[in-house]
Amino acid sequence: MTLFEKIIAREIPATILHEDELCIAFKDIKPGAPVHLLVVPRKPVPRVAAATADDQALLGHLLLTAGKIARDQGFAEDGFRVVINNGPHGGETVPHLHVHVLAGRPLQWPPG
């Protein structure tokens, strides 16, 4: 069971900002920006490269949820970044697909 599955199961506490039948969103415990949220599907897809055509609606839902949270939390107008890490060279640390939402300061490019 991954860390995120334990958060979804309420075995590990988290500051939850959004929850629906497909995903959960919470504050990252090791933020990389003043606002750093994770949008995590309830379905344990290991990473975006492991997603299939059956996951198409779920992937879209994660991005739409990121935008909704940005609007609801009041940082959409100033801007934010959405990041999905895939594999060790991509910065993936938890093998459960998740979307990082970063905001609260000007973000640099390239990101890493």
How does this structure look, described?
This protein has a single domain, classed as HIT-like (HIT family, subunit A, 2-Layer Sandwich), CATH 3.30.428.10. Helix content is 21%, strand content 22%. Strand 1 and strand 2 form a beta hairpin. The radius of gyration is 13 Å and the shape is globular.
Helicity, as a percent range: 10-25%
Number of domains: 1
From the N-terminal CA to the C-terminal CA, the straight-line distance is: 29 Å
Order of helices and strands: HEEEHEE
Main sheet specs: 5 strands, antiparallel
CATH superfamily grouping: HIT-like
What is the 3D shape? globular
Structural class: alpha+beta
Topology, number of strands: 5
Poorly predicted regions are none
CATH class: Alpha Beta
Average pLDDT? 96
- Second CATH tier, the architecture: 2-Layer Sandwich
Beta-strand portion reads 15-25%
Please compute the radius of gyration using only Cα atoms: 13 Å
Total helices: the number is 2
Biggest sheet, spatial arrangement of strands? 1-2-3-5-4
Q: Can you tell me the CATH topology?
A: HIT family, subunit A
Main features:
about 110 residues; 2 helices; alpha+beta; HIT family, subunit A
